[in-house]
Write a structure and sequence with these properties.
Blueprint lengths: L1 H23 L1 H8 L3 E6 L4 E6 L2 H22 L5 E6 L10 H5 L47 H11 L9 E5 L5 H15 L5 E5 H13 L3 H8 L4 E5 L8 H16 L3 E6 L11 H7 L3 E5 L4 H12 L9 H10 L4 H18 L5 H7 L1 H7 L5 H12 L13 H17 L4 H7 L5 H17 L1 H15 L1
Parallel strand pairs: 2-3, 4-7, 4-8, 5-6, 6-7
Antiparallel strand pairs: 1-2
Length: 470
């Protein structure tokens, strides 16, 4: 009988794991989901044991995927009511080195892999997180702003202000690791400071669905609804995972209507716009988009540098050379979480080995992160983009003409070629009509100087960087 149960659980896990691989991608799945070993079910509690090889891995999966795994198992196997993620009892519990290098989410969704350590304070049996569950590191003071996220940050601050906001709900749209979760927590902290006696509900959409299913099974829907609607501020993360379960969507819809009618505040976050959510009924989509949809663009190179520099203060007096900061900001472009995680990992390695932080050390120790982020921008692509921007013919990049309307765009293209590609000065010169390397050096230094003194030039370069990097 036990063998049959093990076979069935293994089959269920195969289906669940395959689905997670599609959702998370090969790298994340291979690193965190694939090592999971399925244990047995406690028939008295309906608890299924899932084992990982280290304490760090167990905690990371618990923090990031517990809700998703629990929901998947409840759907796949009627006997499973919850899951317990821990280290396999037959393995030695090791304090993994990654504990030092990954850290917590901070500074615009902080750490490289996004591990989030939250001390949950539950209300009743629902598991809903009160204000105590807000991460103390994720505040407005710790959020670094730039052109890419200033609208969302200002809207978030307005939502948390003492006076009633002009819009509700606020919908934060941003890709993974760009800071939307940070802003959700910051809103909670600021709102609580302005309204000390308020009650805050923060959870992910997956968590909402898990609690909804649990309340449904335990015939506690009246209590579920009453608790949910008693909050003054509703913060729901990763709303894209509310797909499926029409009854859960309907309950969220009614909750939104009830809270809005009472003048309470609602904030949702997702990786896509409301209209792009799959499997969400039109009425709920309408409610999600009826307030303000604030789009957070990927951080540009200047914002990435600012974020790194803000993080360096906690590592003082350790010195990180400027060329290392420039290198990280230029090459780790996918999201802020990976960017800060790369810095954390580099500094942790330097501290543990007694080495100095250098460009060579960064290239050696961050191979995986760098290779995953590196999009090969070519000089041809840079020249084409610059010519379109300044509306000049592509042939001017190699011509001998000295008219200012041609020379300045050519110099900008040389500068961008040095910033965005690994090409040497002589190699760049050859791509610009066989020019000498000294000409390229002059162009790079000139544009660097103009960016400091000329706001228009700095604006042009920023715009071109955004086009090329995105």
């Amino acid at each position: 009988m036990e063998d049959l149960e093990a076979i069935n659980l293994a089959a269920d896990w195969g289906d669940i794991s395959q689905g997670l691989r599609k959702d998370l991608g090969h790298q994340l799945h291979s690193q965190w989901i694939k090592p999971i070993q399925v244990g047995g079910i406690d028939r008295d509690t309906g608890t299924l044991d899932l084992f990982l090889p280290t304490e760090f891995a167990a905690k990371w999966v618990q923090d990031r995927f517990a809700d998703r795994l629990s929901l998947a198992w409840k759907i796949a196997c009627a006997d499973v009511r919850n899951v317990r993620i821990s280290v396999h009892p037959g393995r030695r519990k090791v304090a993994d080195l990654h504990v030092h290098t990954d850290g917590r989410r901070a500074a615009n969704d902080g750490a490289d892999t996004g591990m989030m350590a939250i001390a949950a304070d539950t209300i009743g049996d629902t598991g809903f997180t009160s204000s105590v569950g807000l991460d103390p590191m994720l505040t407005f003071a710790a959020f670094v702003t730039g052109e890419a996220n200033i609208l969302a940050c200002n809207a978030a601050q307005r939502m948390a202000a003492p006076e009633r906001p002009q819009f509700s709900p606020l919908y934060l749209k941003a890709g993974t690791g760009q800071g939307k979760t940070h802003l959700l927590h910051a809103i909670g902290h600021s709102f609580l400071k302005a309204h000390p006696r308020s009650r805050i509900f923060y959870c992910s959409a997956e968590r909402f669905m898990v609690e909804f299913v649990q309340a449904l099974k335990q015939n506690q829907m009246i209590e579920f609804k009453a608790r949910l609607r008693s909050f003054d501020l509703l913060l729901v993360d990763d709303i894209q995972f509310i797909i499926g379960k029409a009854s859960a969507q309907e309950e969220l819809l009614y909750t939104i209507d009830a809270l809005l009618a009472e003048g309470k505040r609602l904030v949702f976050a997702a990786d896509r716009a409301p209209q792009a959510l799959d499997g969400v009924e039109p009425r709920l989509l309408s409610r999600l988009s009826m307030g303000l949809v604030a789009d957070m663009q990927p951080a540009d190179i200047e914002l990435r540098k600012s974020i790194l520099e803000s993080k360096l203060t906690k590592f003082a007096p350790l010195e990180v050379p400027g060329d290392v900061i420039d290198f990280l900001a230029r090459t780790i472009t996918r999201n802020v979480r990976e960017l800060v995680g790369g810095l954390n990992k580099l500094i942790a390695y330097a501290q543990l080995t007694g080495q100095e932080v250098s460009l060579q050390l960064a290239e050696e120790q961050l191979t995986d992160i760098l290779s995953a982020n590196r999009r090969r921008i070519t000089i041809d692509e840079i020249q084409r983009t610059v010519c379109q921007f300044y509306r000049i013919d592509r042939s001017e990049m190699s011509s001998k003409r000295r008219a200012r309307a041609v020379v300045r765009p050519r110099q900008v293209a040389m500068y961008l070629s040095k910033v965005l590609t690994p090409r040497s000065y002589p190699e760049i010169g050859r791509k610009f009509g066989g020019r000498d390397h000294s000409t390229v050096i002059h162009a790079v230094r000139l544009i660097e100087d103009l960016r400091q003194r000329d706001a228009d030039m700095d604006g042009d370069v920023r715009s071109l960087l955004r086009q090329l990097e995105n």
